[in-house]
Amino acid sequence: MFIAGIERDRLYAPLLLSLMGFRPAEVVGLRWTDLDLKLATLEMVNTRTIIGNVQVLEKDAKTAAGERVLPLPGPVLDALKKFRARRAREKVAAGEGYTESGYVVVDPLGVPRNTRHLREHAYRLMRELEMRQVRLYDARHSCLSYLANNGVPDHILAAWAGHTNARFTKRKYVHVDVEDMRAAATAWDGFHGGDQKGPM
Length: 200
Hints:
Pfam families: Phage_integrase. Keywords: DNA recombination. The radius of gyration is 20 Å and the shape is globular. Helix content is 46%, strand content 11%. The protein folds into 2 domains: 2-134, Intergrase catalytic core (hpI Integrase, Chain A, Orthogonal Bundle), CATH 1.10.443; 138-194. Strand 3 and strand 4 form a beta hairpin. The chain is mainly alpha-helical. The strands form 2 sheets. Strands 1-2-5 form a 3-stranded antiparallel beta sheet, with no helix packed on it.
């Protein structure tokens, strides 16, 4: 519902990156030079963290494993291409008033956004869609849980998350809810003869 509801939003592409399981600091730290839209890959090497809602601290990825190259899903790739084209139009419209920072997540005048800006933007969209407020960082948990529950191997899951330890990824980020266990209930039907008629 959230993805469908924000499709026309200016920051649709960056928000899709959040829903891919990236940390908010990774999303706002992303630069166009980190993207290869021809090969459909993204290199995660830079973060921008805000301290005390005031100071922005820019640094390398959190760990060596955090520096990773990931393939871009089709919808995310398409959204990034459209966002880049929109940014080009905004730059022409702003003229000399445009700031060329190289970052992906910027305002219409090219000024880089930080994690607080991205978070507040997402919360506003959630309110407009009459959805409950969910932290962007929690989307990381949801993404990794979805991938794990749909058969992505542990070592791939850890690499996607930027972790060295697959057990840590599953313990901290992978959560199983009742719908995830529906297939197990169906399998159990066969185990106890659920396809038979009448009492056993």
